Amino acid sequence: MTLLVVSVASGVAVGLQYDPAAPFYSAAALDTVVPFGGFWRSLHFFSSQLFVLCLTGHVAVMAADARRPPAMRSWSRLVASLAVAVLLLFTGYVLRGDVTGEMAGRIAEHILAAVPVVGPVLDGLLFSISTAGMVKVVCNHFAGLPFVWLLLSWEHVRRYSVQPARHATLLFGLLLFAAAVPAPLETAGPAATHVAGPWFFLGIQELLRWTPPLWGGVAYPLLPVLALFLLPVRRRTALLVLGGWLLSWGGLSLAAVFWQAGG
Fold it and tell me: The pTM is what?
């Protein structure tokens, strides 16, 4: 909860300075012009990453506990909230407007364009970068997706209170790290032949080099989500699917890293 509060508070500070008409300039201006802007952007970036990793760890711990199988209703909401949190992280990369953000946005629209019927609808709701710029991405990142996440997580979140004193070491370390390490903002070099997307998207990006978007960009990332949803009723099968998927994602991500280094 502490990481969530830090992420939201720093996101508000960053959002007040953000201009969807000039996304890269807004991010660069935070680092160079706005007083303490670089600190707030770094704090938002790293706290958001940590929050999603902690949420993933929470889901993993619950999935691994065979003694107390989760109730289907609460488990489904938790899995859905994790998917929304990852999408929030993804839209945050897009909003940077740097080469990584541009690549992420292009890949997302390319994938959705390949999905019959619902693809264009989802693109119109979530992105539409090629026609509306960053306007819809901003609305979803700052309002739409957080609202959906809160609806899914409310039963879980309301049980916990924010107690910064209990996480003082983590909070202090995060503040120091954000003050010392700037958040990424990447520009393509003159010899760049390959641009990587967000770290958690590398495996999918690599798979898209070899498979059609419908398989590599839709079916493949949906597989672990479906396996998690089915875990309470098909535990062994779901765990086998998740284990195999994680191994393949790790291998594909490493291949993407090596490809980028070679490019």
Answer: 0.90
